[in-house]
Amino acid sequence: MGDLNVTSDVANVSSSTMSAILSNTTEDDIVRDNSTFNETDVPPTFLQTTGAQVISGVFVWFALFLTCHQIYQHLRYYTSPSEQRWIVRILFIVPIYAFDSWLSLMFFRDNYYIYFDSIRDWYEAFVIYNFLSLCYEYLGGEGNIMSEIRGKPIRSSWWYGTCCLGGKTYTIGFLRFCKQATLQFCAVKPLMSVIILILQPLGKYSDG
């Protein structure tokens, strides 16, 4: 009977000790242990290796050299300002996009890429505006475009995305609607980037 009492006492002490340990273990400790396990035991992907960073860096600097040379040539022979100003602005997307992608790859573990991508998104929206303006410049402006297509029927085509416009004709209203639909991207894209920058420090944002 004495041995049974000692055994039961030991069991009670062990259970009470385990209960105390579990009660002192917070959810943050569990999350911290899981994050430590993930960082140390899970092997990195190829994009997180030094080799990937070196290879991407070579192509990034090659793209920077080519694009900067093209920009320099446009500025040196600035003979058509009405067109070249749009072209130079569009060309700047190459170094910005390439360098941003490289920095995002270098600091991928720290989630700094979210801030780099926001800068890229802002300039991307600016480039869309410049590309639309360049198209209008090539076609002679809004007035010249309308004089060429006004009254012509819109051909229904799945390939060109006009499948729902069969039977309609080109009008100034249609042209301006297309322009507004394109330019709304220039407003929505930076706005979404600002929202991401607000939600990221609060821990409310994750890539989907």
Automatic annotation (TrEMBL):
<feature type="transmembrane region" description="Helical">
    <location>
        <begin position="46"/>
        <end position="66"/>
    </location>
</feature>
<keyword id="KW-1133">Transmembrane helix</keyword>
<keyword id="KW-0812">Transmembrane</keyword>
<feature type="transmembrane region" description="Helical">
    <location>
        <begin position="86"/>
        <end position="108"/>
    </location>
</feature>
<dbReference type="InterPro" id="IPR005178">
    <property type="entry name" value="Ostalpha/TMEM184C"/>
</dbReference>
<dbReference type="Pfam" id="PF03619">
    <property type="entry name" value="Solute_trans_a"/>
</dbReference>
<keyword id="KW-0472">Membrane</keyword>
<dbReference type="GO" id="GO:0016020">
    <property type="term" value="C:membrane"/>
</dbReference>
<protein>
    <submittedName>
        <fullName>Transmembrane protein 184B</fullName>
    </submittedName>
</protein>
